[in-house]
Amino acid sequence: MVAAPGENLRINGDRLWDMLMDMAKIGPGIAGGNNRQTLTDADGEGRHLFKRWCEAEGMTVGVDRMGTMFATRAGTDPDALPVYVGSHLDTQPTGGKYDGVLGVLGALEVVRTMNDLGIKTKHPIVVTNWANEEGARFAPAMLASGVFAGVHSIDYAYGRKDPDGKTYGDELKRIGWLGDEEVGARKMHAYFEYHIEQGPILEAENKQIGVVTHCQGLWWLEFTLIGREAHTGSTPMNLRVNAGLAFGRILEMVQAGAMSEQPGAVGGVGQVFFSPNSRNVLPGKVVFTVDIRTPSQEKLDRMRATIEKQAAEICEPLGVGCSVEAVGHFDPVTFDPVLVGRVREAAEKLGYSHMNIISGAGHDACWAAKVAPSTMIMCPCVGGLSHNEAEEISKEWAAAGADVLFHAVLETAEI
Ligand code: HGY
Ligand code: MN
Ligand code: MN
Ligand code: MN
Which residues bind Zn(2+) 1 (predicted)? Predict the structure, then answer.
C-alpha cells in the first residue's frame, strides 16, 4: 500500500517507546538512567543492537573512521543526495534514557513507518548515530560530527584522552567500531535532528513541539592552576600557595559573570580534578573546565575574555600559576529557515502545539549546519531535567515529535 503524506499519517508510538526501553537496558545507570559512555563496551553493545534493527529494515550500515554509523534506506533516485536524520547513542556517566537516543531511534521509527506504508522517497534516508556527542569521556563534545564538518582533524580526535589516559583512537579500535569510510566524504541534501529539550521551556509553556530556530554558542575553557602541595594542618595561612582557593574564587567569578549577562547567558563548572586529592594535602594542581553559553556572539566572546582576564587577576596575588586552553567551542548557530518552516508546517498540519525555541544544549546538528541545510525538532522533558538519570519524557511527547520528524523528512526527501 503506497500512502501519500496525508494529515493522518503517524509513526507507531508504542514501537518507538519499546525501542527506547530496549536500548535503555544496555549500559544501565544506578538510578534508572544510563551510563553508556562513548567507546565503552556498553556503547559497543548499543551499536550492535542499533545495527541489527537497521538491517532488519533492509538498511545498509556504513561506519566511518570516527566510528559514526550511517544506516541507509535507498531512494528511487540514486543520484539524489540523502536526507540525514540522526543524533547520538552515547550517554553521560549519569545520563538519561532519552538524550540523543530519542533522535536516533525516532529516525529509525520514521524509516519503519515508511516501510509499513510502502512509501518510497526520491532521496535516500540515512539514519545516523554520531560518535562521541557527549564529550563526557573524551572532550570536546560533538567530536565526530566536528571532524565530519572539518572543524577538527582526525589526528586531533584520535589523540583526545579520557581521565584514565586512554586515547579515542585506541578505544575505537578496542571496541571494534573503527570504520573504513573517510570522515566527511558523505554529502547531505539536508540534516534533521530530533532531541529532548533538556530545559524547562516547552513543558512550562505547555507546548508539544519545539521548532528550533537557533542553538546558543559555547566555550569550554580548561584551566590548570598550579599551587604548592603542603600539609593542611601545619602550614600557616600566610605561607600557603592555595590552588584550591583560587579555583573557588574563579568559580564564584564565573557565576557572577553569567548573572551579569542576563538574560540569556549561562556559566558554570561541571568537572574539577584536585591533585593529589588527599584530605590533608593542599592541592598542588587543580584542573577544571568552565562551560559558558549564550545565543549572543558578542556576549559569548566578551564572557570568555572577561573570565580569562579575571582568573589571572585572582591567581596572581595568591602566587598560583594559571594557564587556560579552549577545549570546546562553537559560535551561535542559525538553522536553515526552509527546514525550520517545514517543521512548523508539520506541527500545524498534525495539530500539535508548538513554539520557536533556541537550543540551550549543543548538538551534532550544530556542526551538520556547517556542511548542509540543517534543523532540529524538540519535545518537552519533565521538569526540564537532563544529564541526570531521572530524565523523563512521556510516550505521547516522544511520538508527537517523531510524527513531526516523519512529515518534515517526507517533505524534504520527496515522494
Ligand atoms: O554539552 C552539550 O550541550 C551536549 O549535551 N553535549
Ligand atoms: Mn544530546
Ligand atoms: Mn547530552
Ligand atoms: Mn568563535
Answer: 88, 99, 195
ipTM of predicted complex: 0.94
* Cell output for 37: 559512555
Q: Do 242 and 125 reside in the same domain of the chain?
A: no
How many separate domains does the chain show? Answer: 2
Q: Give 291-348 pLDDT, tens digit per residue.
A: 999 999 999 999 999 999 999 999 999 999 999 999 999 999 999 999 999 999 999 9
Residues 282 and 241 placed together within one structural domain of the fold: yes
Q: Mean pLDDT per 10-residue run, the chain (415 residues)?
A: 62 98 98 98 98 98 98 96 98 98 99 97 98 97 98 98 98 98 98 98 98 98 98 98 98 98 97 98 98 98 98 98 97 98 97 98 98 98 98 98 98 96
Contact indicator for 84, 188 with CB cutoff of 8 Å: yes
Task: Output the CA 220–ligand 4 centroid distance in Å.
Answer: 12
In a domain? residue 5 = no
Q: Are residues 36 and 127 in the same domain?
A: yes
* CATH code of the domain in which 396 resides: 3.40.630.10
pTM for the model: 0.96
Element (H, E) at 185: none
Is 116 labelled a binding residue? no
Q: How far is the CA of 279 from the centre of ligand 1 (A)?
A: 32
Range of the domain at 69: 13-215+332-413
**Ligand located closest to 142 CA:** 1
Q: Within 10 A of 284 (CB to CB), how many other CB atoms are there? A: 17
Tell me which of 330, 351, 377 is where a domain ends.
330
Final residue of a structural domain among 300, 330, 360:
330
Residues in contact with ligand 1 by the CB-under-6-Å rule are 133-135, 141, 361-362
The protein residue with its alpha carbon nearest to ligand 1, atom 4, reads 362
Scored b (16 or more CB within 10 A) or e, 346-380 reads: bbebbebebbebbbbbbbbbbbbbebbbbbbbbbb
Ligand 1 pocket mutation, candidates 92, 219, 363, 391, criterion most atoms within 8 A of CB: 363
Ligand 1, atom nearest to 198 Cα: 5
CATH code of the domain in which 233 resides: 3.30.70.360
Residues 79 and 197 in one domain: yes
Q: What is the mean pLDDT of the chain?
A: 97
Residue 292 sits at φ, ψ, to 5 deg, of -120, 145
